[in-house]
Amino acid sequence: MNILILHRVPYPRIEYHRGIDHDLHDVTYLGQQSAINTLPHGLRCKKVIRSGLACASDEALQWLAQSPQRFDRIISMSEYELLDAARLREVLSVEGASLETVSLSRNKLKMKKAVQARQLRVPGFMPLDRYLALRGQVPWHGATVLKPHSGASSNGVSIYEQSARTVDEINRKINDLSLNIEDFQVEEFISGPVRHFDGLVLNSKIITMLSSQYIGTCLDYMEHGHPLGSWHLETTVQMQAWVAAVLQAVQIRNGAFHLEAIMEGDKPVFLEVANRVGGADVVATYELATGIHLPSHELRIHIEGYTDMANLAGLPPSLGFGWFVFPGHTHRERIYRGLTGAENFRVSPLVVQWNELRPGTSLAEHVTYSACEAPLAGIVKTARPQLTQEWIKSLFAQVSLAQSSAPATGHNPPS
Are strands 144-148 and 184-188 parallel, antiparallel or unpaired? Predict the structure, then answer.
């Protein structure tokens, strides 16, 4: 096959060679220079560098106008280029999910309408332009969340307590940042722990799935510099049935899924869903717990139309894994100077992976959950899920990034 990859996610996060036989197929990676630079040396493939001045689909069509060729598959593993891949498939008549279908799992207004139509609970919501026209008169009483309808990782999200000033505060943010009203929605804030459900679906059937619960929130990670983590917990029959109903509602029929829900007691309230693998160390902990490397099997589903997990899918997962990551983009200093309070955690026998920057390394200014860019990221394994949650919470309570005026406990990871 001739395969086009819209390449945005760093190669080590996907490890494309585990899901695509590059000697059997002709694979072209199209991406910006920074992404192309992550491709391993010696990988049999074609590399096409795009400028990034326009969207991936426009730049791909510009390239193909100069170098016409036919592709059998067009794939994106990035949340931000799933729509581009769908547009290209429609323009070039290539097999795969349609633009209309992909939009359901990218646009939060559309996905909530679809889920609500199946009689599944969702937060109250409406487009921002309608909210402004109603002067903030919403059918809920708690706080209001402002968020892009097609964003990810809580980028651009803010929470407002319901008051007479809320509409003016939201208007001020939109105007100050020159944001497009049509790109935003408002949503009822619902308090409760957030769970994420990850796995694979093939021909509308879930073939593997794990449940996890966050420690911290993506919004606190992004805006306030708080660490983020999650731990695996048991999946009930009822919860798997709920996940399957959501996937059917948003027409995610093939590939990976990452679904988030707020828990009110034991009842889930739909938050959002994506037709991709989760970020941070979701993929790594999934493989440790099940032996299943999600991106590899997703690629086989997209390319071959099936994947063979006969030896793995029926085995119970090894619960007790969890991941954690500390942000650097909000740190007041742009240089990593080590950690405070980390000595006992660093040498804990429960640690599976401990990825720490070398002291003196510049901290990334952009938001990242990547173990190779964050100041600290890792994986832990305990005997029981609840112990994993307690261990990560203790880590978050006792460990922080050192300041220049504080004694650093710098650690030089092995080369």
Answer: antiparallel
CATH number at residue 182: 3.30.1490
pLDDT surpassing 70 at residue 152:
no
Cβ(295)–Cβ(283) below 8 Å: yes
Q: Is the pLDDT of residue 412 over 60?
A: no
Is the pLDDT confidence value at 359 over 70? yes
Pairing of strands 205-215, 194-202: antiparallel
C-alpha to C-alpha distance for 5 and 30, rounded to whole angstroms? 6
Domain count, the chain: 3
pLDDT of residue 414: 43
pLDDT above 60: residue 344: yes
Residue count of the chain: 415
**In a domain? residue 337:** yes
Tell me, letter by letter, the H, E, C secondary structure of the chain. Answer: CEEEEECCCCHHHHCHHHCCCCCCCEEEEEECHHHHCCCCCCCCCEEEECCCCCCHHHHHHHHHHHCCCCCCEEEECCHHHHHHHHHHHHHHCCCCCCHHHHHHCCCHHHHHHHHHHCCCCCCCEEEHHHHHHCCCCCCCCCCEEEEECCCCCCCCCEEECCCCCHHHHHHHHHHHCCCCHHHEEEEECCCCCEEEEEEEEECCEEEEEEEEEEECCHHHHHHHCCCEEEEEECCCHHHHHHHHHHHHHCCCCCEEEEEEEEEECCEEEEEEEECCCCCCCHHHHHHHHHCCCHHHHHHHHHHHCCCCCCCCCCCCCCCCEEEEEECCCCCCCCECCCEECCHHHHCCCCEEEEEECCCCCECCCCCCCCCCCCCEEEEEECCCHHHHHHHHHHHHHHCEECCCCCCCCCCCCCC
> Do 22 and 3 touch, CB atoms closer than 8 A?
no
One-letter amino acid of 218: C
State pTM to two decimals: 0.91
Q: What is the CATH number of the domain that holds 280?
A: 3.30.470.20
Higher pLDDT, 412 or 267: 267
Is pLDDT at 415 greater than 50 in this prediction?
no
Q: Residue 64 maps to which CATH number?
A: 3.40.50.20
Handedness of CA 159, 162, 165, 168 (dihedral sign): positive
Same domain flag for 198 and 184: no
Q: What is the pLDDT of residue 411?
A: 62
What values do phi and psi take at 148, rounded to 5? -65, 145
